[in-house]
Amino acid sequence: MNKIAIFGAGGLGREVAMLIEQINSKKLTWDLIGFFDDGLATGDEVFGYKVIGNADDLKKHKSALSVVFAIGEPTIKQRIISVIHNPNLNYPVLIHPGAVLGKDVVIGEGTIIMAGNIITVNVKIGKHVLLSSACTVGHDVTLGACTAVMPGANISGNVEIGQCVYLGVGAKTIQQVKIGTNAIVGAGAVVINSIPPDCTAVGVPAKVIKKNNQ
């Protein structure tokens, strides 16, 4: 089995540990050695696994190791990934055995696909994307790197989603809209018009309520 560690020991980290266990229940693939986390002490125990270090320790790790980043906030995840330069690390794709993937689905390294996802055809998923449980992704969709799609979100066909987008729980899009880089779409929102970058949109239909970082 290949050794794997999770960066981030919060709630999402525990869910990713569960995902790894579910993958192993179908086919023994991963030896989960523990968590890296900047907010916990080395030796702490989370979900039955030890915290084995922080980001600095991960940068200096001296042997081959698969790592998955369990960080729900896209810009924080992108920032952490950007400073961890270690040729000993690799970033596997984790897909729940029950997820449904159609033809011509391209998935970037480090992506996490939880239980209940249905991803249809001709979909391009960037690096380190999170697809939480029970999401649907229609045909010809593009998801940018480090985007996070929360549980129960539905993305219709021919939708283009930029990098570091946060799509909230139960959010939906109609077909052929674009959601710009660093945008946040609130829980339950319905996107019927394109959303510009660097803003937050909520409601039915989704409307921009603020520019982010202001």
TrEMBL record:
Residue stretches making up the PglD N-terminal domain: 3-82
Binding of substrate, residues: 72
Keywords linked to the UniProt accession: Transferase
Lineage: Bacteria, Pseudomonadati, Bacteroidota, Cytophagia, Cytophagales
Site for Increases basicity of active site His, residues: 140
UniProt name for this protein: Acetyltransferase
Keyword set includes Protein biosynthesis: no
Stated family: Belongs to the transferase hexapeptide repeat family.
Record has Transferase as a keyword: yes
Organism from which the protein derives: Pontibacter fetidus
GO molecular-function term, one example from the UniProt record: transferase activity
Entry-linked InterPro entries: AcTrfase_PglD-like, PglD_N, Trans_hexapeptide_repeat, Trimer_LpxA-like_sf
Enzyme active site: 139 (proton acceptor)
